[in-house]
Fold:
Amino acid sequence: MEEVEQEIEEVEAEEVEAEQVEDDDAVEVEGDLDELVKTAAERDQYLALAQRTQADFENYRKRVARDAALAQDRGVVKLAKELLPALDNLDRAIEAAEAEDPLLAGVRLVRTEIAAALARVGIEAFAPLGELFDPNQQEAMAQQPIEGASSGTVAEVYQDGYRMGETIIRPARVLVAA
Structure:
């Protein structure tokens, strides 16, 4: 009987040992699981940070491109404002020249080249003859009654206006019918 009791004690000891090993394994698995959850949370934080950084960089890139385009447009407008008086003087020279003047062809060519250069960068002339007066695009130099013209319309254009897209570089100088 002693042998049986001894065997029972050994089996019970083995069971206790097995339970301790299982408990140790469960604790180890639980620790690994906690570490895995913590690592996943850190990964999610880093992913969110990377996505925000990427979005910020994309917004920065777009803003810099937009600012560069606006700066270029401002430079073009500034140069055009400086060239417009020269273009006006060429127009006056063409009007004042006699038809047989040998320099007239050269002056016309220079005027055409300057106008073409302005057109290539998006600057266009406008002469609102017959249109309703718009103070945003035209500058009234005078107003007088004119037969056949309705009140408030542009009866004569003294000087063409220039614009780049929707931006008025110089308003047209006009006579408005009263």
About this structure: Residues 110 and 134 are 31 Å apart (CA to CA).
